[in-house]
Task: structure prediction
Amino acid sequence: PAEQYPRPTEHIPEMVAMITTLLEKGFAYVADGDVYFRIESFPRYGALSHLDRSGLRPGARVATDRYDKESASDFALWKKAQPGDDTLGAAWDAPFGPGRPGWHIECSAMSKRYLGDTFDIHCGGVDLLFPHHENEIAQSEAANGKPFARVWLHSEFLSDASGEKMSKSAGGFTILRDLVAAGHDPLAVRFFLIANAHYRQRVRLTTDALHASAEQVRRLRDFAERVRRTDPAPAADEDLIARIAEVRAAYRGALDDDLNLPQGIGVVFELVREANAALDEKKVGAGARGALLGLLEEVDGHLDVMGGEEPGLADEVERLIAEREAARAAKDFARADRIREELRERGIALEDSRDGVRWRRVTPA
Result:
């Protein structure tokens, strides 16, 4: 969770203060009660989106107002109150007249309040690149005299099953609550969103894709549980340790390459297959086991889908497995079935094999 969830209506004074600074510095002007940012006063405007300013004209993404502006491309910092705004609670007092903030100033004012004049990473949808993010940069850097955000990450849209862009305005979108109600594991949805495709690539949300992500999450969880519970082999396993180090380096390299998490996860799954084979042959020693657990912890620090064990969970599960085995030996199969079902309801599945009973996490029944 975030440390702060600021609301624009609770930060009107910060917005008024920033607009006042922009007016004092000559980056803004008042026109018929509105306040506008003077784009021509900020030469770097459009650098983020590689905008050709010579061709900048008012249009669908640049608001034109019924009031006079120095340039049609200048954007609003403050809008004069209209009849009825005060009744609706949509008007505040300011030195330049009562009104409400423009669409962009709130982000600049609140980020300054909680992150300072300059911060590291600014995220947002690709549709906000222009004009919103360009306007944020102009406002913040003009007012503060310092660089705004050091790195910008713009994520692409989700598409529906037909390939159409999901859009709230068009009514064609899916919310997490509906996916969970349909039986999808929330962590599988998370995996799909962050590890199925690069964040700058549009991805299609389908039932098959979510099922595939759920299977990948299950594989990671099963592997993590297996490594945690394995008894290390006595022999040294230098080759496997070296392979784990190689995969760790490749995984980090993928993240260093514009957060290419899907590529990094692909390398990790290659190791999962190889390490499972080594576990089958009981060739995983203490060194490799520790290295695998360390890598899995690092990966799940980014994915947050595997989940750590609850304190005492393993001991409790093993106790119930022992009770179940005793019930089966006594031919009390009803009791054995009740124990299996109790564990299943808690998200633990039992697998009977020649080597004994294994357990793994699943979505609770």
User: Anything to note?
Assistant: DSSP finds eleven helices and ten strands in the chain. Residues 176-303 form a domain with the Isoleucyl-tRNA Synthetase; Domain 1 fold (CATH 1.10.730.10). The two ends are 27 Å apart (CA to CA). Residues 241 and 288 are 5 Å apart (CA to CA).
